[in-house]
Sequence to fold (137 residues):
Amino acid sequence: MFLSVISRSIRRVASQNPANLARPFSTTSDPKESNNDEPIDMENPFEKEKIKCILCQHNIEPSYKNVQLLSQFQSAYTGRIYGRHITGLCKSKQEKVEKEIAKAQSVGFMGFVTKDVKYIKDPKLFDPERPIRSHKY
Ligand SMILES: [Zn+2]
Fold:
């Protein structure tokens, strides 16, 4: 039904002007303008902004030799490693930090229940009093 309507209109256009037969659906003579309605390549305007943790932002790989960095994830009072809800690290970096702290402790670079006094006044990466995510208990 629809095809027959189209073919009839083509025939009508062709009978009026035989030059139009080559491009029966084009209204303009410029072939570039006839592509105006085609989709164009563009960035997705609705794409979510990717949130990166502080170590990923600066592309820092935690190492047991970098005790000053690791100390920033350790409590000054108990020497415990802060959880991910406080540090705001992504899961892989948090696991890496915990692994490297354990490594540093086992070779004697860091204390188990103490934080080196040298690093007490280091800038705070996060506030333990105000966790980034609320804890489940
Ligand atoms: Zn990360």
